[in-house]
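#lab-general

N.A. 3:47 PM
ok so I finally got the sequence cleaned up, no stray characters, all 162 residues accounted for. can someone with queue access submit it? mine expired

B.Y. 3:52 PM
send it over

N.A. 3:53 PM
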Amino acid sequence: NKDAANAMKWCTSTLSLDESSVDGLVGRGMAHMLNDDFEEAIRDFTNAQELAGGQDRKIHEKLTKAQKLLKQSQQKDYYKILGVPRSATPREIKKAFRKLALQWHPDTYRGDLAPEQVEKKMAGLNEAYEVLSDPELRERFDNGDDPNDPQAQQNPFGQGFG
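B.Y. 4:20 PM
back already:
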């Protein structure tokens, strides 16, 4: 991502002049997020939060989002399952699902996998489509919550003010 690379360059040069620049750390953290480098983003947001005295709500929100996205990156990626980018339109999501459903449906699958594996693959496709085709569930997923993860649903007040 060219924007992320430019932001990274700017923030790194800012931090080389002033290593305690909260704006530099936050900007670099956001650039790391664009590159899906959530561990580095968490490191920068944590440092920025400490330098800001732990009282900056916006930094805290970015840190929380980076932590959720890191957790999510280690779990299921519904976009990857359907083979679509995060920016995919509902129409693109539906088209990708239909194409894959034709290929993997247990009644029509012609390949070397065992029936249980094919059913598991189809269940994954259904789950991904269910989340990404529902605007509310997709938004939750994009914010780092997996709507199908029972642990993510334990605290209904965990979202804070948003």
